[in-house]
Amino acid sequence: MIKKSKKDGEITAAKPINPMIILAVIIIIAAIATYVIPAGSFDRIPSADTGYDTVAIDSFHYVDQNPIGIFNIFESFTIGLQDAAYIIFFLMIIGGTFQVVEATGALHAGLSNLVIKLKGKEMLLIPVCVFVFGLVSATAACCEEYLAFLPLMYVVCVAAGFDSLTAVALLFCSSAIGYAGGMTNAFTVGVAQTIAELPLFSGMGLRVAIYLVLATISSVYFLLHVRKIQKHPELNTMHETDKHYAEQLDLDEVRPMTGRDKLILFIFAFGFIAVAFCVIKLGFYIDEMSAIFLIVGLLIGIIAKMSPSDFADHFVEGCKNLLWAGLIIGMCNAVTNIMTDANVMDTLIYAMGNVLGNLPAKVSACGMFVMQDLLNFLIPSGSGQAAVTMPFMAPLSDILGVSRQTAVLAFQMGDAFTNVITPTSGELMAALAICHVPYKKWFRFLAPLWLIWAVVACVFLVLAVSIGYV
What we know:
By secondary structure, the chain is mainly alpha-helical. It has helices at 19-36, 70-83, 85-103, 106-117, 125-140, 150-159, 164-180, 186-195, 204-231, 239-245, 259-282, 286-303, 308-321, 323-341, 345-356, 361-376, 382-400, 404-418, 426-434, 439-467, and strands spanning 2-4, 11-13, 40-41, 44-46, 53-55, 61-62.
């Protein structure tokens, strides 16, 4: 959108809506919904075999209404921040470490030389990133960890002639693809199959096919997007924003890499490799990854001969750069807390189950996918959504004539796809904030691909019902 300046008639870009405003509106809508949607609950039976509560499918009953008051709306924000403290402080440590590296000048020199070497071959980055990051997510369940890579991916993409939309997509759409075809994703497939009493990671063959199809389609989509904005720069809706925020690499005055530059970048790169290895092999998570990045930042500060005060100043500056991304994550959590505390989540699940019960098996399988999509707006956490919905969906699938394996497949694709488009996804909103991408522009960019994903999901679900997928 453009508008004329009142002073001199100059055409300027209209200021995009801050994502915190969007989330504030969603929080208010969720609070109002607690007055409209009847409160209800299922009886839950602890299961020693699975470790998760099992829903008694015929036990739904309405309970006393527990609407959220005005004071509770404000309170939900602070509680949401506390619930997401682990990821918020992880983000701040990443920002601090990245700022320390940037202050050395090694990153600027390294990226400048990299872009020169990739001249004419930049397009290879797209399928390589999609398949690699997607595979890591499919096997090791990485998602929020990619926030660590995003500042670097942002600079590389802009320097290579792409845009910030592509930077976010190469990490978080790839993550969605990996989750949708999650071969050994313990946090979604593992939890869902355990609750559904299926062998762990069974049915992998079809999920591999889903991953390969989605990764191929997405790579082509991103390549076409990049080619379009390179041939027609006027169609690049992020050009002015990227130009303003991203560091511009002057390729006409690239200084040669020094030995200290190479050592700093080696340690920086080794930190990412160590994180990936330890997540996959040793089961590391946020606390351990934060420690690795702290160590990396300190080592680089020592090699660059920074004084303790300079190191602290750069680190705090980096933390400030990602602070508002943390606030956004806290607001996303507030939506889930409101719906859960008001006892309306079970009511929504019960209502959706009644709709599915009147549909043919193949249509019901696709309906499960749609249901999980809708619920993911309220429960962005994959494992959290599995724990809430699968105790209901597993026995319901038996009644509908749909295999439990197909119900798990519907859940994992519904969970994966919605996470990259819903404004209640903390990781997505943080990623958009880091790259200064307005949510409206992201939605327009991704909507066509998301619809293609949805069609692919329904095709595979119909196929799963037809072959009796187990």
